[in-house]
Design a protein that fits this description.
Layout: E1 6-10, H1 17-27, E2 34-39, H2 44-55, E3 58-65, E4 68-74
Parallel strand pairs: 1-2
Antiparallel strand pairs: 2-4, 3-4
């Protein structure tokens, strides 16, 4: 996945900062826009998945490569 509107680097941050920064960034985005967020916190996989489901955001994909977790989330 390479098409996105905004990028957020949360690498080096620990729970709950990646999900909090993701929420803040998405609050300023328009409906339908896509956020690419990267994190090195393994806990962010569960946190972002739960947060997206709870808030009706669409988690398009998530992947891990070399300890970096990448999420593509579409704003509802």
């Amino acid at each position: 996945m390479s098409e996105f509107d905004t990028e957020l680097n949360c690498e080096g941050l620990n729970c709950p900062l990646p999900v909090l920064k993701t929420k803040k960034k998405m609050d300023g985005m328009l409906s339908g826009e896509i956020l690419k967020m990267t994190s090195t916190d393994p806990g962010s996989v569960n946190d972002v998945t739960f947060w997206a489901k709870l808030n009706g955001q669409f988690l398009m994909s998530q992947a891990e490569d070399g300890g970096v977790y990448t999420f593509f989330i579409q704003k509802k």
